[in-house]
Amino acid sequence: MNTNQIFSPSSKILIIKPRAIGDVLLSTPVIRNLKEFVPEASIDFLTEQFAADVVIGNRFVREVLTFHKKHDSTLAVIRKIREKRYDIVIDLFGNPRTALITRFSGAPHRIGFPFRGRAYAYNHHLTAKGGEVHNVDFNLEALRHFGIPIVSSDPEFPISNVHREFANTWLAEKQISGRSFIGINPGGGWYTKKWSLESYAQLADRISGNNELTIMLFWGPGEKEEVKKVQAMMKSESVLLPKTSLKEMGAFLERCSYLISNDSGPMHIAASLGVPTLGIFGPTNPHLQGPYGGRSIWVRNETLDCLECNLTDCPIGNVCMRGLTIDMVFEAFQKLQKKNSQRS
């Protein structure tokens, strides 16, 4: 079937990517490139409630639909989708639930990856390149499959002046508006992806002693006590941010000259905002999931042969993180500085 017969100017399109924050963000290039190809089409996005801020405000999205993983039944989500009468549904996640939603969406064109017996849900099957390309390009396969040109592969995280004003007002109240900041994000989802709090504290002190940068400590839900421990272990001055929404956090990230972070949502948000970012990696693959863009780099302990295990529970003591020294990360940070000084 001709691509123009599928993606017509009058198309109503739904893109599905329920989680996680970083994964949703890395799917946003699909939105822009699709809108560039069919400017008059209506594009909606379905995601879980906690990740909605990643897409809300996106200039190419008409409506962001949300559901709660535990409280909303699959049938309820399907009913909501069917009421919208979409022409095309693109499932970029491909788990059992999103496959069901896509299959019974009522859309004539259902696009997705035929993982583990889920081919039944789609009538357009994508080639899965997981383990071969970065997550951004994995998602863009949904467009390349149909010969749709890729105008930009940059993820987009929309922030409004309201969120920037929140950050600016808070910094002004603390009388630190004029400082240069480096963000430190010691949080993350899996414990296996997290460098130690002690290491972050020592690294922050070393950076502070060698640069005119104030340490800005980032934290998300359930992480404040851990970040307070980092601050307590530090000898140098630091700024502990207030509780923020995802977009308010993005506004603080914009104020940073650099970010150092575990593999996490804030890492991807910072990179998408053009903040030079150093990602700390171990069990996940930075070639596939690292901070995206030419201004950012990543570091890991290359002496190990168990990297990229993707285990959320390590049977050998999380050696990829424990063996990553402060010297290794500090040297990587210096490389990040040099990389970006050459660009400016």
Compact overview of the structure:
The chain is α/β, with parallel strands linked by helices and 344 residues long. It has helices spanning 3-6, 21-26, 28-37, 74-84, 96-103, 135-144, 161-173, 197-210, 224-233, 246-254, 265-272, 286-289, 319-322, 326-343, and strands at residues 12-16, 42-48, 63-67, 88-91, 109-112, 124-125, 181-185, 214-217, 238-240, 256-262, 277-280, 297-299.
Explain this structure.
The protein is α/β, with parallel strands linked by helices and 344 residues long. The protein is built from 14 helices and 12 strands. The protein is globular, with a radius of gyration of 21 Å. It starts with a helix and ends with a helix.
* Strand segment tally: 12
Average pLDDT over all residues? 95
Integer-rounded radius of gyration: 21 Å
Number of helices: 14
Classify the oligomer.
single chain
| Overall 3D shape | globular
Amount of beta strand: 15-25%
Structure classification: alpha/beta
For the largest beta sheet, what order do the strands appear in spatially? 3-2-1-4-5-6
The major beta sheet can be summarized as: 6 strands, parallel
**What share of residues is helical?**
25-40%
Distance between the termini: 47 Å
Order of helices and strands: HEHHEEHEHEEHHEHEHEHEHEHEHH
List low-pLDDT spans: none
